[in-house]
Each structure stands twice: as C-alpha cells, then as structure tokens.
C-alpha cells in the first residue's frame, strides 16, 4: 500500500521540478532578452546622439551663410540651423544647449560649415556681428498687469490699446498659442480668469528690426522669453507639487509683494507654509486685482469682494496670475526659503518683517500701519 502511494508522489514531485525548471528558463531568457534589448537601445541612442552632435557632412563640407536675428531663443536658433542643413535636429540642439548650460548667443551674420560639430557651431554663435541696429526698442517692467503691458505695447508700436487687447483676448488665437507653447495649458481658458495670458508676457527689453511689428509678433516674442525661463526650470517643475499655472500664479504674487531677491524667496516660503497648513494666503495684491483697481492700500471693506482672486476670501492658490513675474520671482516660486514664518508685513520703505505667530504679526502691523496712510497722503500732495 505504501509503495503504491509513493509512486504518485514521486511523479508529482518530478513534475513540479520539471515545471520549475521551465519557469526558470523562461525567466532567464526573458531577462537576457530584456538585457539585449536594453543594450541595443542604449547603443542605438548613443550612436544617434553622437551622430547628431557631429558634422552633417565632414567629407565634403559646405559653407552656408546664416543670419541669427536679434532676440532669437535657443529653440529658434536650432530651427534656423536645421532648416539651413547645418544640424540634424533643432530639438536636440535646444536640449543640448540646456544640458550644457550654454547662453550668450549673439545676433549676426555667420559663415558656418556643414563640417562643424554642434559644439563648434555653439562656440561660433557666441561671437557674432550684429546685422543692424533694431528699429524699435522698449522695456516692459516686472509686476505689471496685462492691461498695463498692453498699454506699453500700444504706445511703443503705434497700435491702439483696443487692438492689442483684442488680440490678447481672442480665444481662437489663444487656443493656437496653447498648441505652440508647452507652458500654456487649458487652465488659462477658465471663464473666471480675467485675461488668459495674464502673467505669461515676460517683462524685459525687446528689440525689433521693424518700426511697427504686428501685435502677434510682440506677444509671441514675450511668450518666447517666458518659455525659455520655464524650460531652464524644467527639473524644478517636475519635482514641484504644483502645476506650471499655479507656479506662475505664486510667482506673480511674489513679484507684487517683494522688492529684493532675498525677500522673494522668503515670501515664497511663507506662502508655501500657509498652503501646507491650509491657511488662506491673505495677500493684498490679489485684492487689488480682484477689485480691478490699482490700490495703494486695501481697506477692510475691500477684503469682502467675492472674487476667485481674493485670497482673503478663498483658500489656496488663486485662479490665475495677477501680474507679470520676472525670472527671479518664478525661480523663487519653485525654490522657497525654508523657514517657520507664517506672516510677513511690508513696510512703506520696502523693508519686509517676518513673524511666526499672528500675535507678533499684529504687533508689527499696528506699529507700522500709519506709514502707509502718511505715505499715501504725502504722494497725493
């Protein structure tokens, strides 16, 4: 009886051993297969990148005349070089420039060769000769509302303010821009947002080779500059818990509140601390924007306005930016200074005082609140 029972057991054991061997072989060959595929992909990628970084035609190089316009971004330069047949990929050029942290490209006329590597082309593009002086130069300061930026564009280009605003609020045009710029998302199409492009028109000096560029040319030149800044902060954005639209909104608040670089990062830290604790941000510039009036100082009555921009009434980050932030403010919004501060008070003279408790903050407020009243009265005289 016992012998007959052992045979089935032995057979079952051997069958399981056999199956285990088969499974191990399958796993082994799968691992080998994946390793081989991975190796092929890595080798292929290496040769592709090496080839793309190398000369387009080293054996029979051809000299090509190229003009790089004033204000060209790395993306635009890459497109020009690719169109002229000097590099294989404008996209790779842009990423390579970012990876190498290259900058300082000069506008000008160049005689470039298809026998040059990408590194050689980059070096050459840093030593250009300006083709001609720009016909139009103007500067947009940091922290301006979109309507104020539109006024600057209008006064400098000869277009009317109404024409500029028509372009800046044209939904079809804006939807096209969303397809063109990765930083622009459908968030800006929210019907409660006052102006979709608020906060995205970069404050800087702009040079144009024509006396009266089109409104679209100006707008896209400004968006190009913002996209360049956003691209340089790509790693920070990937690590952030907030969307690009939320970061631009925080940056706009920081820009309106801070006067120094140090304060931008400290104020950013306060905003993050309040958000982490579920506290309202309670920043005055959002109230002014909600009121659609440039207020020197806000009153208690102002704080009651029912608007998604009003951070005294609604928790979290407002629905959208309230001004055009500069690069330092955008960076500060992504790299807040780590402190225990929950409150800050900006004095009339520009000094910002930080506190960890409401009691201390209230003492500071009571101590310096008359500065703003007296300062406003003095400027009105």
From TrEMBL:
GO molecular function ontology, one term from the record: lytic endotransglycosylase activity
Role: Functions as a peptidoglycan terminase that cleaves nascent peptidoglycan strands endolytically to terminate their elongation.
InterPro entries the record matches: MLTG-like (IPR003770)
Bilayer disposition of the protein: Single-pass membrane protein
CDD domains xrefs: MltG_like
Family annotation (NCBIfam families): endolytic transglycosylase MltG (TIGR00247)
Entry's Gene Ontology cellular component terms: plasma membrane
Protein name per UniProt: Endolytic murein transglycosylase
Pfam families in UniProt: YceG
Swiss-Prot/TrEMBL GO biological process terms: cell wall organization; peptidoglycan biosynthetic process
Keyword Chloroplast listed: no
Swiss-Prot/TrEMBL catalytic activity: a peptidoglycan chain = a peptidoglycan chain with N-acetyl-1,6-anhydromuramyl-[peptide] at the reducing end + a peptidoglycan chain with N-acetylglucosamine at the non-reducing end
Entry EC no(s): 4.2.2.29
Family affiliation: Belongs to the transglycosylase MltG family.
């Amino acid at each position: 009886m016992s012998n007959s029972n052992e045979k089935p057991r032995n057979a079952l054991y051997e069958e399981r051993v056999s199956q285990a061997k088969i499974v191990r072989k399958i796993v082994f060959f799968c691992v080998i297969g994946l390793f081989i595929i991975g190796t092929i992909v890595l080798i292929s990628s290496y040769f592709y990148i090496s080839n793309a970084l190398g000369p387009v035609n080293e054996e029979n190089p051809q000299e090509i005349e190229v003009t790089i316009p004033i204000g060209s971004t790395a993306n635009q330069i890459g497109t020009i070089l690719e169109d002229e047949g000097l590099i294989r990929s404008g996209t790779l050029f842009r990423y390579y420039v970012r990876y190498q942290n290259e900058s300082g490209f000069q506008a000008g006329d160049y005689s470039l060769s298809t026998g040059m590597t990408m590194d050689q082309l980059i070096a050459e593009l840093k030593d250009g000769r300006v083709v001609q002086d720009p016909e139009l130069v103007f500067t947009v300061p940091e922290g301006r509302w979109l309507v104020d930026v539109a006024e600057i564009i209008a006064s400098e280009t000869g277009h009317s303010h109404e024409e500029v605003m028509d372009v800046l609020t044209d939904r079809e045009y804006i939807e096209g821009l969303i397809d063109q710029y990765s930083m622009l998302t459908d968030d800006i199409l929210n019907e409660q947002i006052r102006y979709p492009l608020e906060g995205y028109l970069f404050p800087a000096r702009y040079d144009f080779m024509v006396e009266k560029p089109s409104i679209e040319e100006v707008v896209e030149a400004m968006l190009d500059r913002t996209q360049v800044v956003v691209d340089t902060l790509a790693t920070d954005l990937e690590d952030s818990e907030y969307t690009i639209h939320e970061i631009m909104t925080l940056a706009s608040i920081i820009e309106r509140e801070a006067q120094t670089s140090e304060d931008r990062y400290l104020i950013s830290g306060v905003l993050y601390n309040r958000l982490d604790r579920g506290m309202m941000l309670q920043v005055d510039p959002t109230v002014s924007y909600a009121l659609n009036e440039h207020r020197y100082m806000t009153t208690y009555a102002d704080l009651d306005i029912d608007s998604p921009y009003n951070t005294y009434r609604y928790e979290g980050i407002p629905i959208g930016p309230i001004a055009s932030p500069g690069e330092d403010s955008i960076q500060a919004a992504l790299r807040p200074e780590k402190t225990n501060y929950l409150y800050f008070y900006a004095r009339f003279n520009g000094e910002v005082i930080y506190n960890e408790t409401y009691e201390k903050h209230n003492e500071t407020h009571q101590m310096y609140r008359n500065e703003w009243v007296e300062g406003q009265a003095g400027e009105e005289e």
